[in-house]
Design brief:
Layout (H helix, E strand, L loop, with lengths): L2 H4 L1 H25 L3 H28 L5 H29 L4 H38 L1
Length: 140
């Protein structure tokens, strides 16, 4: 499988998840939130999670050629740590600055984070599976 096609499936899943969540938010956002600015902040959270997911996929894909599996996992965990810190920073800014429907925003943002975390975990499992397959081919 070509290098450019190896991780096409996670990118498609990430994009599809983002489109579904964004569409659902635009359709049902007025029922979920009373204030439309909260809906746009939630769209920002979705966009942030999408872009960070894309960055993770491409950084890990680029590093996979030169690093061993332990370094890949360390890099992946570093990226996840950076993601949660940036995510929490965004939440704290919203909570202190706007305070409009803070509980709802927090619940929805955390739910979105866990949805994207599931997708990230599936991506890491796919990377590890590919590394094991490549290693078994080298040993033969």
């Amino acid at each position: 499988m070509g290098n450019e096609q190896k991780y096409r499936k996670p990118v498609i899943y990430l994009l599809l998840l983002t489109v579904i969540l964004s569409t659902a938010l635009l359709v049902f956002g007025d029922k979920l939130y009373l204030n439309s600015s909260v809906m746009w902040w939630t769209m920002g959270v979705i966009s942030f999670l999408f872009l960070y997911g894309l960055m993770t996929i491409f950084v890990v894909d680029r590093k996979i050629q030169t690093a061993n599996s332990r370094q890949i996992v360390s890099l992946y965990m570093l990226l996840k740590g950076g993601k949660i810190l940036a995510f929490l920073f965004t939440i704290v800014i919203y909570m202190f600055v706007f305070k409009v429907e803070a509980k709802r925003f927090l619940l929805v943002a955390i739910a979105l984070y866990f949805i994207y975390l599931l997708l990230d975990t599936l991506f890491l499992a796919m990377v590890e599976k590919n590394l094991k397959l490549e290693k078994s081919k080298e040993n033969e």
